[in-house]
Fold:
Amino acid sequence: MSTDLVYNTNSKQISLDESIGTSDISDATNTNIRQINKLTTAIIAESNPNFTPQPSDNLSKMIKSMFETGIKNLKQNKMQEALKNISLALEMSQRKRAPYEAFQIQLQDMQFMLRQKIDIELILGKNLDAIQDLDMLLNTGMLDPELFLRKTDAYLKLKQYKLAISDCERGLSLFPANPKLRVMLLEAKRRFADYNGDI
Amino acid sequence: MPQSYDYDEGSETWPFFMLTLLLTVLIPMTLMQIWKLTGKTETEDEKVLKVNNSKSVMNKLDDKYTDSSIVTFRDKYNNSINNVFSAKNGLIIVGWICVSVLIQIINSNESIAKSAMGTFDPYEILGVTVSSTEKEIKKAYRNLSLKFHPDKLDRNLSEKERLSMEEIFVQISKAYEALTNPATKENYLLYGHPDGPQSQIHGIALPSFLVNGSLMAKIVIFAYVSLLSIGLPYLVRNWWVKTRSYTKNNIHVETASYFVDRMINYKPSEILTVKLIVSWLSHSKEFRIYYPTLTAADFERLLLAHINREKVDKSERDIQYRIVAKCHTLINGLVAIACGFRNMDIASAALDTFKCIMQAVPDSKYSEILQLPNVNKDHFIENSEDIFTVGKLFTLDDKKIGKVLGISDEELLKDTLAVASNIPFLRLLKAEFKVPGEKNVITGSIPYISLKILVHSARQKVISEKKFPEKYLEDDEDFETIKDPYSNLQTIPLTTYSFSPYFPAKRRSDWVCLIGLQKDNKIIQTPVTIDRLSFKNLNNEFDKRLITEINDKNFNPEEWDIAKINIPLGQPAPNEKGTAFFKVVIKSADYFGPDLEFTMKMDVIDPPPFEEKEEIYEDDSEDNESGESDGEESEEESEDDNDSDYTDIDTDTEDEDEDN
Structure:
């Protein structure tokens, strides 16, 4: 790879020389530059040279308060506001937290907030966003019958009956006794048959 | 033993040598060819035709809708097969011409006739047969000697004639002696001459000009040396390099390594689209071998143009056809590699991409309808009214279908409906795990997947598995099927050619079966291709618009073919008892729509209690004692042998006890 990197002495950030066409740069390079910049920013803010993975209390408080505002909005039935606040809280935890903060805690935080976000998205009918977030949650190793139920529901609303059945069956094979999933599967199968004109 | 040979000077022997050499090759070849021409061997195609009458429908329509440029492209590659046959016939004809020429040479060659004369045959000289008695021989000899005896010869004969007559008389008396005198007769039988062994001359059947002609000899030696030192090493090297550069899946190693690289660097956050898979495909080494001047971007553009049915430049059309036709092998390789990486998403995305390439339809919710011929795309997308599947389409009556698809011509609509109703859809009737010879799946056993599938058309009314009596869904339980559960597959006919007027090659429909675990949604084994299925059911009239209810009057289970497919499971059952869930995905490689995806439950139980087993072992040991000398060959039995060692010891002590 060429070394056409530019270092900004004021912001201490590195960036690629703009004279090269963006098409030549691989995704991996871009990602790496972004990660390095994030690390730099975090270290500048960090006073302790021997920093620990202890999460910053300040930031946690801020994120928590923002999340709680979102929940308050939810109780007042202000869905749009609630979604906005929770998304902001999520974004903040993603952006502002240093990469070396404890992964366990970051992950738990993220999963907890994301679940709330998904519920609101489903209420608002943002099914595609909800499915993306659900995939994210499932891929981080969180397996819960409720998640499969929500995913099936979202797919049904999007008329993706095949995917709905597939996810519902997966949920059922992980939690065979779940009555809600059983009902959902029957419904998905019925709708799929209708979609195929088999009724 | 050093020995010098006489080469064939007068072309006496080599024509015979060549003749036999030719005939040993020609006769079997000719017989085979004649057998083939008159023969009763039916090719696989004819067998398929016999079972699936629908073949002709799809095939005719495929021919009708295929572009003429594709037809010429197909012919170019099909001809090579026909040429082989005509070349074989040509070889046979040339061979027989050579034979007749050789026979001509032999007949016209004087030295051959002369040497044939030179042999000594006492029977011929005396004019008797082999079966003649001694009396007859004596009589013949007397007659001849009266005629040729030197004393009885005419005095007026010239000196020369006299000599030849005397010669004949010597021959006659020699011949007589050879047949009557026991000593000379033995000589004759042993050495072929009454005077005992003649001097032997060793000859070789090669013509002498090959060795003695100074120019020819040089040419022969030169040819030998060049063949051994250049030709052979070169050919072997080429063959070796070629076989080394292709994987078992028949894709180039560089392509395979590129795919593996993609697989390793694949981020789960990346969304798998047809475009992504096409861009992977366009980096294949195969394409660059065909067209070294083009780049991956060119190939990607051509493949996408094919999928979107865009016109390309005439000069590029052959390139496009060639790379599109190659895609099948590449996708198969990619699927196999994805299975190796246990990635379900990539494997199914690759198979979806192949559908797009096969039907030249981009992947969208409309693609199941758009794969049909004559559909007016814009009109349909505007008026689709919630119809996205062929099955739903057939809930409308024919006129309405024409309206929805934007087909006003009745003939064209008829073709479209014929294609739509001949697309083979699969319906799962029964799926279970089986262990050969067992009722249940036992811990650590090796089960296989047994599927009962009903091939049906989207036009037909759904028949649930309950409509079929139990016996239609049961496997044969004879010893042959227990021994090899996959043997029955060979009795199922091959599938017919699929309707794919935009695909440059003709392909039989097939299905790829991926098997994964529900626990982590990962593939557990290599893909299995199902290419044997009977499409007989597609001919059944069972229109869902006419039949409101399935009853005994309109439904006869005898008329429906149920495919029994057994798929090997790549791994043994778990070692603990419990339930495992598997995900089985059966994807059609040709059409949008007929995919199957279902979950299979494997209930693993512990083997029957141990005490029972002990009894069995004791029985075994008794058997061993009674007939130890019996050769026990099967593996299972030899395993039992190991176990019975212990019981042997036990019984020994018992014996001792008894003795004491």
